[in-house]
Amino acid sequence: MVFGRDGRPLCSAYREHRQIYPSPGWVEHDPMEIWQTTQEVIATALRRGGLSPGQLAAVGVTNQRETAVVWERATGRPLTNAIVWQDTRTTDICQRLVDEGLEPLIRHRTGLLPATYFSAPKLMWILDHVTGARAAAERGEVLFGTVDTWLIWWLTGGPRGGVHVTDCTNASRTMLMDLRRLAWDDELLARLSIPGAMLPEIRPSSDAGLYGWTLDDGPLGARVPLCADLGDQQAAVFGQTCYDAGQAKNTYGTGNFLLLNTGAEIVASHTGLLTTAAYRLREEACVYALEGSIAITGAAVQWLRDNLGIIRSAEESEALAGEVEDSGGAYFVPAFSGLYAPHWDMYARGAIVGLTRYVDRRHLARATLEGICYQVRDVAEAMTADSGIQLTTVKVDGGATRNDLLMQLQADILGRPVVRPVVNETTALGAAYAAGLAMGLWSGLDELRANWQADRTWQPTWSDDRREAGYSTWKKAVEKARGWLAPVESGATSAR
Questions:
Q1: What is the pLDDT of residues 304-317, one digit of tens each?
Q2: pTM assigned to the model
Q3: How far apart are CA 201 and CA 56, in angstroms?
């Protein structure tokens, strides 16, 4: 996406890439396909906008976080497919870390907890299961990164001197970064047997010193400063201009992510949320956030489409669900990758409960949309308990916010107004803002705040009795999904 000075998109291009499921619970991407697709959409967007690379002030990158890529330094060849953030093959590794008593150390240093979600267990799995990976890592021949690091490396030259960097927001999702020092934690690296030499340098999210330059013979066709990098959810915080402590946004994508800006304060969660880096500008102090991460939301709608064939497109879910007044008593807990915040049960699996002969595909479509909204309420309740801040209005973004019924259901289930901005793709906008700030395109945060405009607001319409009765039944449904699988070497039924 290309944005102008007013924060409005000038042109864009979009292309899906393959989701690879080799085994139950495994989710992979082809890193070379991601790089090839990235090159294609860059060229397409510039062509559609009639723009030349020389007209670009700066480039920023944003990415789905936690996905782990390991590749050869000399050639750029991936050692294996990227292991995606939703992948659950590392359940046994995470249980072992808990059994070894590492959870308190991980929580204190990183703000996270041992879970299949994060990058470190995926990297441990690659080092232990891909032939030659550990030996090559110890010799300094292979590099690790999340997808931002992979793309920046290629955009700045790849094997021809590509820059191996990440920013503090992505690094904070690896389970390897000390939140206070914004540096890789040597003790954790040693305890997890990860060679530090394969990790990227951690830089500010908006860096006036630049990460590097794109290449004349690269996809942009010119030398353009690449100077910003944020994980997708932190980029949405930035694009939604949630720059003050107490401001929050909720992104609707493959999963859902509610983030609350806590300013310079690192707030430890006692309710199952994560403490994470929100962004860091240049050499300024880091801004932190509380995050509630939900694994499966938009992906549940994709499941209705791709696996069950109930709908032909994601957009059809709104019309189908709108044909009925409620879900007919059905509740859908889409715990395909276990449950993330605030439950953190890697042994949970998806469940549809409350079925009767009355329920048809319309009710299942509505139960899917309601399940997205109930998961957000779970996180919002935990966030209020941790921070003492009652959310008054929730700024929303992401592709699923185009579903007006979903947004109305969210307002009804939360009991709070839901506001969608004019520019919905705030993840990309946040990366653009961070890049433009680094190059002086904008004078500061106040100028970015002035760009933000509301498109539509949804007010709650449900009665308090209906809202609380529905939420109470939702919590019963969640209990049915929890602890579905049993760990191989432990009697526990939950990773909490």
A1: 999 999 999 888 99
A2: 0.86
A3: 26
